[in-house]
Amino acid sequence: MKLSYLLFTFSLTLSLNSLATNITSATSLQQSNLQQTTDLVKANNKFVTLLGTQIDVGQKAPNFKVVNESFAPVMLNDFSGKNVLISVVPSLDTGVCSLQTKRFNEEVVNLPEDIVMLTISNDLPFAQKRFCKTENIDKLQVLSDSVWRDFGIKYGLLIKDMGLLTRAIFIIDSSGKVAYKEIVANISKHPNYELALSTIKALSPTEVINKGALTKKK
Description:
Layout: H1 2-32, E1 36-37, E2 42-43, E3 46-47, E4 50-51, E5 65-67, E6 73-75, E7 83-88, H2 95-107, E8 115-121, H3 125-135, E9 141-144, H4 150-154, E10 158-159, E11 168-172, E12 178-183, H5 193-203, E13 206-209, E14 213-216
Parallel strand pairs: 7-8, 8-9
Antiparallel strand pairs: 1-4, 2-3, 4-10, 5-6, 7-11, 11-12, 13-14
């Protein structure tokens, strides 16, 4: 009985290791075929290589698939007809990323109700859930691109050999077009919060007054 159990365990371990190797090889092959951008972002004063397709303002925003804290798929198309601000961070466990996420979470109450605000990183959903609970992030949606890397690749944000997303802000208008884009030139710096917020407010047909009451612009 013990021998058969050991043989089963050994066989299972080999199978899992083989599967992990195949997944890693497939991922490496996929990334080797991606467009590479080498002159947009610096880390420690050296340029990093971004993988994926660069998206320009005015283009139709590519649909993407990420997951929430329960690993349930969430897609850009789920917010069709709304103005969407996407705050992209490398990792919620770092200082600037944490501050960026908390800043946008605080700003939600100052925005019209038709605006959707997302934070996307490659942190695992478990880590994102823990961060949100600890930091009281409860007004925006924090989503993970760790499963498929679909968002990072389609928006040209995946850092080669790191598996992280570079710091960026995208605004998608209600027609589904990219209305604003900032890829932060140095990964350790903050984005331009004021410009991003003023841009998305200008897209909305409503404005916030009297602690959250809404009125139509004249």
